Amino acid sequence: MHRLYPLPSEATDAAHAAGPQRVPHADRPWLMLNMVASIDGAAAVDGVSRGLSSEPDKAMFGALRAQADVILVGARTANAERYRPARRSRARIAVVSGSLSVDPDLPLFSPPQGRSTAPLPLVVTTDDADDGAADRLAGRAELVRAGTGSVDLLGSLRHLGRLGTRVVLCEGGPTLNAALLAADLVDEVNLTHAPLTVGAHAPRIAAGPVDGSLATPSRAYALDHVIAHDDVLFVRWTRSRS
Ligand SMILES: NC(=O)c1ccc[n+]([C@@H]2O[C@H](COP(=O)([O-])OP(=O)(O)OC[C@H]3O[C@@H](n4cnc5c(N)ncnc54)[C@H](OP(=O)(O)O)[C@@H]3O)[C@@H](O)[C@H]2O)c1
Predict the structure, then answer these.
(1) How many domains does one find in the chain?
(2) Distance, CA 1 to ligand 1 centroid (Å)?
């Protein structure tokens, strides 16, 4: 793995590249995004991201997880990718699910024996979420409620901050990313460029806010680093807020 920018370039590894320590905002945790996309911008192949990933991408994925206190993920990604408890990270997983469509039988909600003292995963939902769906998660997840109709993402991040969360890593998918970008909550974008094209029938890394509002202004980001490993490129951008 070789850092190409900033200059001078130097050899690096995923653990080093995943740093430095992030500083939370006064009222909410730092929020970083990590996604992998093809050369032509696809965020999935046949409905999952596996076809885009690679050994170096997995190494960076794990190293970024190690920087996080909470891993945030949308319900459709948690369901499609069969989310499970983070193995090599102390981070707690939080699934965003306004309608509680998240599958209560995911491996995430059935930790292996011996990890029963670990805190339950979180499900971030709304004040008016369906009671029956909430009951199906009882004893499997701790619910965080913020907002009516759709999840109040800023409110839920503030809530996580009050629980001691300093850094949140969002792992997608595109719908959750779009909602976070619309609310201008994304401080840092980590993007892996996979060396392949996928074609037209795939989502971009941000697509279609759940509330139907598409009026998201452009946001400026500054280039933080560029790292190459064989044909795979890792690029990090941080939000310019001046
Ligand atoms: N390339 C990558 O790095 C990468 C990473 C992750 C995922 N993916 C791919 O992306 C696809 C899934 O992404 P997706 O866009 O369909 O779904 P998603 O973003 O994973 O999940 C969308 C769901 O999250 C909940 N949600 C998000 N924002 C919300 C808000 N503000 N309020 C209430 N609920 C909210 C809703 O759940 P409810 O319906 O329960 O209300 C919504 O339906 C899969 O193909 C996956 O493989 C790719």
Answers:
(1) 1
(2) 30
